[in-house]
Amino acid sequence: MELGQAIRARRIGRGWSQEEAATRAGMGLSTWKRMEARGPSLVENLINAAFALSCEEGFSQLFPVPAATSLDELLQRQAAAAGKLRQRAPRRKAAP
User: Fold this and answer.
1) pLDDT of 22-71, one tens digit each?
2) What CATH number has the domain bearing residue 44?
């Protein structure tokens, strides 16, 4: 129910009616009203509401990467992350 209240507060903060919020989230008005009253019953509705209300940045915090259990694992993660970094191409030499 707390989640439903937070969704309602965010909607009101944006100055949207329930109908406008439901339309932006791609769901029916009765579904939106029920979500505000009781909280979302489907994960899909929660996700749609989050995107409509510009709250999707918090999703990455739902599943944090667990801490490394050993120094070897930490080093492997760092090496893997370093391999994914993009590098700039070397500068071209000016033509004489």
Assistant:
1) 999 999 999 999 999 998 889 899 899 999 998 888 777 777 778 888 99
2) 1.10.260.40
pLDDT for position 11: 93
Total length of the chain: 96
What are the DSSP calls for the chain, one per residue? -HHHHHHHHHHHHHT--HHHHHHHHTS-HHHHHHHHHH--SSHHHHHHHHHHTT-GGGGGGTSPPPPPSSHHHHHHHHHHHHHH---PPPPPPPP-
Is residue 73 a part of any domain in this protein?
Answer: no
The b/e string for 3-16 (b: 16+ C-beta within 10 A; e otherwise) is ebeebbebbeeeeb
Residue 87 neighbours by CB distance under 10 Å:
5
Say which amino acid occupies 31.
T
Number of separate domains in the chain? 1
Placement of tokens 């019953």 in the chain? 41
